[in-house]
Structure prediction request, 504 residues.
Amino acid sequence: MGAAAFAPPAPTTNQPQPSPHPNLPPEGEEANTMNRRNFFAGAATAVAATTVSRVAMAALPEPVSQSSTATAPPLAPPNGRPYNAVVTLNGWTLPWRMNAGPHGQVKEFHLVAEPVVREMAPGFKVNMWGYNGQSPGPTIEVVEGDRVRIYVTNRLPEHTTVHWHGQRLPNGMDGVGGITQPHIPPGKTFVYEFTARRPGTFMYHPHADEMVQMAMGMMGFWVTHPKDNHPLIDPVQRDFCFLLGSFDVEPGSATPKVNTMTDFNIWSFNSRVFPGIDTLNVRKGDRVRIRAGNLTMTNHPVHIHGHEFEVTGTDGGPVPRTARWPEVSVDVAVGQMRQMEFIADEEGDWALHCHKAHHTMGPMGHEVPTMIGVDHKGVAEKIRKLVPDYMVMGDKGMADMGGMEMPIPDNTLPMMTGTGPFGAAEMGGMFTLLKVRRDQKPGDYRDPGWFRHPAGTVAREVPGAGVPPAARHAPAPSANGARDATGTPDATVRKPAGHGAHNH
Prediction:
């Protein structure tokens, strides 16, 4: 789905009529600067969190829904102040319409909180709650200084709210149910309105039954672009964004377990998992910005291969230049946003992933014992007499899992999967690729395929070299000076007292 699908016709010249509610748009089909057929464009701000009357509902922008999991091209703003649009990984940007308001022109959006089905990887679908047909919801893009009005319709079976994470706004627009506003009941529409006061990388999510609603996938990205040249915000050629998510979906099931605290088994970028996550495709020499937000229950060290980057912004705003340093990994803690920038000057297919190893795998049994070094041979033969399809696993490590094909329950994600030009990738979860090509055209986000390595630049086998004999080491004392009968240091360790192992 390209940006052209959202481009509206030119605004109408009809003048708006007075509204029966001072915080709501005028009544009638002709009340808006674009009529209901003409309505979507782009930017962001919102009105007081109040109920929308049945009369005012007739003047609301019609909601747009999207079910495709493909990465949509950037949505160029057809009206309002110009900006360089972001690309949401496996997502899209919410269109808007311009309307007249008491503070001048207002950008109007319509979010619909509703149950959705998200395909997290080919053949693996999960029942979630989200916005406008997807989890995460669509990205909202606005410009610093824009007046934004956001209608929120609740199609969930319970009440909800929307918190605009990181925004400076009136307290009554902050979206904390029961504290700053009434909850939005099922079947009702509320409206938020405020001015986007500072540029940066933000997100939105519920502040009502938060544990359940966020565990079900309710979240979305928000980007406020600078209105002018900003001393701390450089122009970039590629600007990507995604949210880090976690779910607990038992094999063979389709609905997350919302009471899980730390023991999640699905780790995602924008509710997609490898190999279902699209690649980030850039031109060599591009300045690239990657914005990541974390709404999971643990931190994620995001690592990029082949390049150094600087953290140029957080949800608190741009980072002063004197506070930046080169990195290859950045830890994104719970509830944080991090904005990374670099020059893509090395061609290739570079891994981009969370550096917690079990976050780059699919569902795994945490209670399965380690079998490395265990001799299965005699036992395996006896078991096969009772269970003919029994397979030995784990005695030499888990790499064989990447190439194994065995029956698994329907709608179940394999633990290790994916293939590349040299064989099994043995990955899953929070993993994708940054593809850098010298011949990638400006503005072209299509996947260029696998990198063609120049001759002599791929790691290769050494001809005729077998496995050398094990090296001999002089006996050395262990920490307590003990050795076994052969002179080998004692490998016994004493576990520290205290809490058990963490499950995340």
